[in-house]
Amino acid sequence: MTHRQGLAIAVALTALATLGGGAGSATAQTYGIDFRNTLMPASGGMAGTSVAAPQDFLSAINGNPAALTQYKGTHFTIGGAFAEATVNLEQTAPVPLLGVAPFSAKSSTPGAIVPAIGVAQQLDGLPLPTTVGLAVVGAAGGGASYVQEPASNATSSYLLLLEFAPSVGVELTDRLSLGATMFIGDGYASGPFVGTSGMTNAYALRGGFGLDYELGEATWLGAYYQTTQAFRFENEAVLFSERRPRDVDMGLPQQVGMGIANQSLLDGRLLLAADALYLDWRSAALFKSIYRGQWVMQLGTQYRATDRLTLRLGYALAQNPINDAVGTMIGPVEVPGGIPAVKYLQSQFAIINEHRMAGGIGVRDVLVRGLDFDAFAGGMFPASEQLGTATTVSVASYWLGVGFTWHFNQPPASPGRSDS
Q1: Nearest-angstrom CA–CA distance, 420 and 414
Q2: How far apart, in whole angstroms, are the C-alpha atoms of residue 32 and residue 34?
Q3: β-sheet bridge partners, residue 188
Q4: What's the pLDDT score for residue 412?
Q5: CA 215, CA 235: separation in Å to the nearest integer?
Q6: Main-chain phi, psi angles of 66, to 5 degrees
Q7: Does residue 414 surpass a pLDDT of 60?
Q8: Distance (Å, whole) CA 374 – CA 381
Q9: CB neighbour burial string for 370-395, b if at least 16 within 10 angstroms, e if fewer
Q10: Which of 97, 100, 191, 368 is deepest in the core (most CB within 10 A)?
């Protein structure tokens, strides 16, 4: 198969996935509501660790696009993940102005199917070595639903953000690469305000920029920055006793990430990597009223057990982002009932878990030469938190996913990559 044939097939399948992917809701493996790279085919088995030496090109597109230059030839991935959470809410006091009475219930929000699909292509004939990529990925999700409980007054929230992401990475020198990604976001939301809320969608742009530096023969440094992404869901909610519909602004935060990876141990079979991320939730519409700035530490390892089998393991420590010092407003909306009402609404996006573990495998040349298979699974350790004096939420979740990657016209294997 030629470069052009592989690229044409990949683009066609990506377009189909755009039309068919992304069903369901998602309150699962997120930092705040942001998935980051925790549901990618290879990075998912390393708890999302991927800034300096990502083991799948989708993680480069979605995180540090400069690392795309580590991928030579043509690559096409089709994959996805299923993520589901168990969320329990206990409300011990009424919130009369929201129409909420005391109740205890489990969220009925179903799990989510999150796509991870894309293509990467090395370009020939340019002044500098260049790799371009195109991906459709799940960016963020969250929500909870207690509509089955009459005392909740039909409390329900939903959010799912998908990204269509063209990307480019350029090698400035043999060691230094720069990259950029444009995220074209498609969002679906309802809630979080108690009242009449319809499912609406909105679109927004985001920019991502990165650099990657090969410090030595087996060590890489990486960093990236992503701008905010602001969605406006028009006429999304009719609040409380009002009759007119309100626009609801939601967004993803600006963020930075730094990472290091080394593959010098065990004759190059063992990769160790670490990332530090900061998500500035104070820059995100609506969520700046719910979350504070959040630090995340990701640790991942990959061991090439045989020439075909790779084992992965990861741990992530994510700071609980819940903002304790809330006021009486969420975004521009003054919430009837004051702080107790805000705390109740805050519980619908309370991703409070700090500890996550994940593991995965990679198998080369499955069925045919050049076709690789990746699988991963993980979970968030159960956690609970009292919000104010009357609202208690507890959350636990698990996720699993797979990916198939076709490699065409590859050069000999390069360090740091299990699928090269």
Answers
A1: 6
A2: 6
A3: 160, 201
A4: 53
A5: 51
A6: -65, -30
A7: no
A8: 24
A9: bebbbbbbbbbeebebebbebbbbbb
A10: 100
Listing DSSP states for 194-214 in one string gives: SEEE--EEEEEEEEEEEEEEE
Least confident range from 105-114, 177-186, 241-250, 317-326: namely 241-250
Contact 248, 231 (CB under 8 A): no
- In this predicted model, what pLDDT tens digit does every residue of 348-393 receive, in sequence order? 899 999 999 999 999 999 989 999 999 999 999 999 999 999 999 9
Phi-psi region of 191 (alpha: psi -120 to 50; beta: other; left: phi over 0): left
The answer to whether 401 and 116 have CB atoms below 8 angstroms apart is yes
The answer, yes or no, to whether the previous bond of 192 is cis (omega within 30 of 0) is yes
Q: Which of 391, 419, 388 is nearest to 405 (CA)?
A: 419
Element (H, E) at 10: helix 3-20
Residue 113's CB: how many other CB atoms inside 10 A?
A: 17
Region of residue 175 (left: phi > 0; alpha: psi -120 to 50; beta: else): alpha
Per-residue pLDDT, averaged over 22-50, amounts to 83
Q: What is d(CA 199, CA 196) in angstroms, rounded to the nearest whole number?
A: 10
Q: Which of 261, 186, 254, 183 is nearest to 224 (CA)?
A: 254
Give the whole-angstrom CA distance, residue 238 versus residue 265.
59
288 vs 239: CA distance, rounded Å: 20
Strand locations in 92-199 (E): 103-106, 112-123, 130-145, 156-171, 176-190, 195-197
| Contact present, 64 and 43 (Cβ < 8 Å) | no
Measured on CA atoms in the order 81, 82, 88, 89, is the torsion positive or negative? positive
- Superfamily for domain range 3-408: Outer membrane protein transport protein (OMPP1/FadL/TodX) (2.40.160.60)
239: part of which helix (H) or strand (E)?
Answer: strand 229-239
Rounded CA gap, 262 and 215, in Å? 10
CB 257 within 8 A of CB 223: yes
CA distance 59 to 135: 10
d(CA 373, CA 136): 19
**The residue to which tokens 């009475």 are assigned:** 101
**Cβ distance 59 to 40 under 8 Å?**
yes
Domains of the chain, by residue range, sit at 3-408
Residue type at position 16: L
Helix (H, G, I), strand (E, B) or coil at 215: coil
